TrEMBL record:
Ligand binding (substrate): H132
GO molecular function, a single term: oxidoreductase activity
Pfam families: Aldo_ket_red (PF00248)
Record protein name field: NADP-dependent oxidoreductase domain-containing protein
Positions of the record's site feature: Lowers pKa of active site Tyr: K99
Enzyme active site: Y50 (proton donor)
Originating organism: Allomyces macrogynus (strain ATCC 38327)
Length: 333
């Protein structure tokens, strides 16, 4: 019989976190993360596959925590820590999230993938570990993947996502991970994990913006007490898959008109749209001024604004299409 264990640590995700995908160098990403931490960001989102982002995040954490890093960042998590607070920078004030890449999905490789991430970050536990994509690929043994290895259509047919999840649950039991999550999934995929999970997903992260509002998924997660995090909430201006025909969300006439009405930037409209729906956002920026405005979008959208933005969903634009990334029609679109 399934044991419906609820992990005894509760995490409240801030409305705005920092995404780290797409940086051009370790120093650029490290500087952005450090700046974000100083501004008040407490949720940093990264991934094993984001080239040097985990390493850069680790560098920023060491600088921000200063001399306390080794005794604080390397300390094991306990519930007592979660219930305490500190006036000085402290590891327990942060939510550090990373993602298990597709080549570490076999049960015998889950721990290796997580240990590599922990080593790069300089941490002994993760606050949140996601399955990056529910696509299972053979283990290559490599610590990095060139682009041609990422996109080549080789898949492991002998691995089930439920088996991966059980190993991730074991990492929670061992204190290496606090909470678990799923990325790039459908309602049906979430349901399949809920049916077998001993520790249910605490968070689901998907691409989400007015061109891709994912209303059914948002409603499903709300019913099951699962937080939703939106990546690419601004429409991913830096997407590697865009071309001259790709709609630019930040320039959409509806978005720019609402921004003009409120005398703010289009990005603030898009972030406020997500937040008013109860969605957490993780926009990426390396610009200090943009980091600050992203952290506090604070635009009270009225019913007319929301109705106009709702009309954009018919465009159904997915900036990160698994058909292009993996050659897989994951979402059956």
């Amino acid at each position: 019989m399934k044991n419906d264990k609820e992990f005894d640590v509760k995490i409240t995700l801030p409305a705005v976190g920092l995404g780290t995908w797409g940086g051009r160098s370790v120093d650029e990403v490290a500087d952005a993360v450090l700046c974000a931490l100083k501004l008040g960001y407490r949720h940093i989102d990264t991934a094993w596959i984001y080239t040097f982002a985990e390493e850069a995040t680790g560098q920023a954490l060491r600088k921000w925590l200063g001399a306390r890093t080794h005794e604080d960042a390397s300390a094991s998590f306990s519930k007592e820590q979660a219930d305490s607070s500190a006036e000085t920078p402290s590891r327990k004030d942060l939510i550090i999230a990373t993602k298990l890449w597709t080549t570490f999905m076999a049960p015998e490789h889950v721990l290796l993938g997580v240990e590599q991430s922990l080593a790069r970050l300089g941490l002994s536990y993760l606050d949140l570990l996601y399955v990056h994509w529910p696509i299972l690929k053979p283990f290559s043994g490599a610590e990095t993947h060139p682009v041609d290895e990422i996109i080549q259509p080789r898949f492991a047919t002998n691995i089930e996502l439920a088996d991966t999840w059980r190993l991730m649950e074991a990492l929670v039991d061992q204190g290496k991970v606090r909470l678990l999550g799923l990325c790039n999934v459908t309602v049906a995929m979430i349901g399949e994990i809920l049916a077998v999970a001993r520790i249910k997903p605490a968070v689901v992260q998907v691409e989400m913006h007015p061109y891709l509002p994912q209303d059914d998924l948002v409603e499903f997660c709300a019913r099951h007490g699962i937080a939703v995090v939106a990546y690419s909430p601004l429409g991913s201006p830096g997407s590697i898959f865009k071309d001259d025909t790709t709609p630019v969300l930040l320039r959409d006439p509806v978005v720019t008109a609402i921004a003009a009405k409120h005398a703010v930037e289009p990005a603030q409209i898009l972030l406020s749209w997500s937040i008013q729906r109860g969605i957490k956002v993780i926009p990426k920026s390396t610009n200090p001024a943009r980091l600050l405005t992203n952290l506090h979008p604070d635009v009270p959208l009225d019913a007319d604004d929301l109705a106009r933005l709702a009309t954009l969903g018919i465009k159904h634009v997915r900036y990160f299409d698994p058909n292009k990334l993996f050659g897989v029609n994951l979402f059956q679109e």
